[in-house]
Amino acid sequence: MNEMNKLLQEELGKISFDEIALKNKSADTVTTDLNLYDGRNTQFGYADIVWKSDKPETVSPSGFVMCPKSAQDVTLTATFTYQDYPDLTGTATFNITVLPCAVSNASSKPDTDKIRIFIAGDSTACNYPHEGENNRFPQTGWGQVFGEMFNDEIIVVNCARSGRSSKSFLTEENFRFICDNIQKGDYLFIQFAHNDCKAEDLQRYTSPNDNSYQECIYKFINAAQKVGASPVLCTSITRNLPLDTTLVPYGNALKEIGMKENIPVIDLYRCTNSLLNSGIQDFYMRLSPRDKHFMDNPEFIHSQYYENGSIDNTHLNINGAYAIAKMAAEELKNLNHPLAEYLR
Known about the structure:
The protein is of the alpha/beta class. 23% of the residues lie in helices and 20% in strands. It has a five-stranded parallel sheet, with helices on both faces. It has a four-stranded antiparallel sheet with strand order 1-2-3-4. 44% of the residues are buried.
């Protein structure tokens, strides 16, 4: 395993700043958000990635950049882990300088004139890169496009991360980032279950039966309410598996909390599960090699999925992400939620 770790570290050492740069020209002229991806294909298979920032108030673990009054040096560290090789770990480090700027393009920059929707969730909601070395197009989380459902009065700050459960998310800097930035008048959308139900992983597993799931959800609710922000509970989207019912108890527990605490619930499980036999299969990452359905996007030929395709009944493609985001928007209307008046 030591030899594998050495080989992994050599591979990770070749990762360039270009992979996370987005609109930033170089590592010493950072003024806009970064693409801190949460997964990568390596010679040992697919790795989960957790980012840490030594100055999260300047660059968050999700890549949100908040331009300081004076230049700030920030160290970002990516830790790579494997579910199949629990002893195999590696790190990649980037040293950057965040410059002051008159107007920041950072999506998380506090703006008292706008309402912000923070999203805490898992891989079905999180952002995925659609360009560069880690291109995952057409994989897309519904939270990645949710902001397009609203007018310019709303900013969506998508803090969802792949592989997280309600339990594990609470231990990471993304949760602290939400707590440090959410304020009165903002909203916190909460969606977890896909990883909570993995009983073999005690770092992530929770259960509605022993209330460990509910206890975690209440921590998100309390984080929002104590600063005057409003929580919104979202049941998880269904897997494209008609016989799978593992998410049902989690959804029921979430709806019970919503009813008890008078918190709105967007029932995405109901919306999606009801369509399992009528075309929802096209929402998921079920791609043929060189899939013709996505050839209209020029970035697809550079994607990790272009040659190999994908058979994935959990994660969404870009069409599915837009469909789920529209469902969530429609549910806001059905609930007569205050956010509905800002929908396009």
